[in-house]
Amino acid sequence: xxxxxxxxxRKAREKLGITQQTLADRLYVTRQAVSRWENGSRYPDLLTxxxxxxxxxxxxxxxxxxxxxxxxxxVNPLIEYPLHKRVQTALFASSVVTNLIVVIWYLGFxxxxxxxxxxxxxxxxxxxxxxxxTALITAVLIIGLVQSIKDRITPPVxxxxxxxxxxxxxxxxxxxxxxxxxxxxxxxxxxxxxxTVAYLLVDAAVILSVLRFFCGKxxxxxxxxxxxxxxxxxxxxxxxxxxxTVMSGSQMVTKNIMISILRTFAGLLIPVLxxxxxxxxxxxxxxxxxxxxxxx
Length: 296
Prior knowledge:
The protein is mainly α. It has helices at 2-16, 20-27, 31-38, 46-55, 60-63, 66-75, 82-111, 113-116, 121-149, 155-183, 186-215, 223-246, 251-290. The chain folds into two domains: 2-64, 434 Repressor (Amino-terminal Domain), CATH 1.10.260.40; 82-285.
């Protein structure tokens, strides 16, 4: 369908006898942008599409079919308005910075005596798992940050980022809670089993809700993404408070309270990021539905 849209633009432009560069200058975009529209690899955003129809002396119905309008939110960048782009990029950048600091802390904590002095074998394995998973998640977030800066985060790209991030988080939860289960007295070990199952269910729910919303064959409600991400945020906060309460007064907490807060903040930023992207995509889909049906 996009090829048809691009062909309609090309025909309308050539009918007026203007070049791609001339059209680009009138719309305050690059010639490459016009070229991408015409070859079917990208749509303009809705406001630009309206100006485009005015410059080509054509209606949107002449350029866009109904199928085009429903496809538009899925193939274009997820976020197109400058302010929304800046917020998305800022969320990615904040997540990268906080997770990177956590990785650096893990390295210092595990490689120096401050961590090794009071850790058991299983504690060390858990720390290594946390460091590795945070490093992997940071790498994925850096990819997302670069894609956001380059304006290349489409709904499928957002879904893949979510699967990678929360998938790594699930594996880390399995490893860490198993280590804590092995290092705790038998009468309290069941707590980590419950925590593991609960966290895995929450992460899995987030992944499934994101995939359903971003990659579903038909538009779906964003409510499951909001609910699952909200539960994950609440769970992270509860886990932090539970850990601080249980270990209150110990050397581990008193020495590392700030990094504990930072780790929690790093974990909270990620679901907030996906809630934001979900809300923006949902708004785009609603705008696309409000566009008039083409006359037959």
